[in-house]
Amino acid sequence: MIVDELKLTRSYAFCRVWGSAEEHVLHVHDCLEIGVLLKHHLEYRFGDRTYKGKPGDVFLCRPFEPHWSFAEPNEPPYESILVLFMPSALKGMPDWNRLLLPFYTNEEVPPYIPGDSPYAGAICKAAEEAALAQEQQASNWMTRQYMHLIDILLQVSDFAASYAPSGVDQQRPAIRLDIMDAIGYLLQHYTEPVDGTVLLDRSHSGKTKFFHEFRALTGLSPNEFLNRLRVQHAMDLLRTTSSPIIDIAESSGFGSLSAFNKQFKQYTEASPREYRARMTSD
């Protein structure tokens, strides 16, 4: 597995891409990704799960989640649009943290939205219009893309709200909603000091139950989840600003430079300085 170094120059982008049947190494990256399949068929791999994609299907790639896509054997290269964005792109929007929940609750929503659903249809249309606006250099095309991004995320959110996981204990929905509220709180306040008692209060559960349900939804402990959000935020700042590293560590929510360096290297296998050098090189 490798860390894919996407050199995003702004907090969101729409990219038209083509893919072959060549096998690839599963890769991860820090940005959030939505893959919209336009032509031909592909396989989308998420760790040990494989989905067969057809035109119109939509795939959700969570940050730091191993994934890859490639065309079906003996078929022409597939065409798709990748919607790439960072959480910072949404700050300032009403309920922006709730739009991010489907990308951070791995076990609550599948990474696949079937093309015959109304949600996928609306996402596909918005993605094509956003890509076309850039290709034709339409007036205010970046603003148009942002409007399409919000529309797409609303569709993803509506799909997540409509999805009912099979085999889930029906006694758990209320608990899950409370844990989701705590996760939403972390998404909104991850750059600030976080009081664990606030999370417990929002979850309306005891400490043991909270930790169990949190890990069931996210695959991480609350502290791991918080550190990953902070590293993700720092990676974005290192790519797109010239701020001193110590300032980035502080603004990302780390209490010390040593803690920042340790957590950053755990996720990127590089120091913040090394990462910035790679991201800013021609």
From TrEMBL:
Tagged with keyword DNA-binding: yes
All residue ranges annotated as the HTH araC/xylS-type domain in the record: 180-278
Record field: transmembrane: none
Keywords: Activator, DNA-binding, Transcription, Transcription regulation
InterPro entries noted in UniProt: AraC-bd (IPR003313), AraC_XylS_family_regulators (IPR050204), Homeodomain-like_sf (IPR009057), HTH-like (IPR037923), HTH_AraC (IPR018060), HTH_AraC-typ_CS (IPR018062), RmlC-like_jellyroll (IPR014710), Tscrpt_reg_AraC-type_HTH (IPR020449)
GO molecular function: DNA-binding transcription factor activity; sequence-specific DNA binding
PANTHER family (alphabetical): HTH-TYPE TRANSCRIPTIONAL ACTIVATOR RHAS-RELATED (PTHR46796)
Protein name in UniProt: AraC-like DNA-binding protein
Protein source organism: Paenibacillus taihuensis
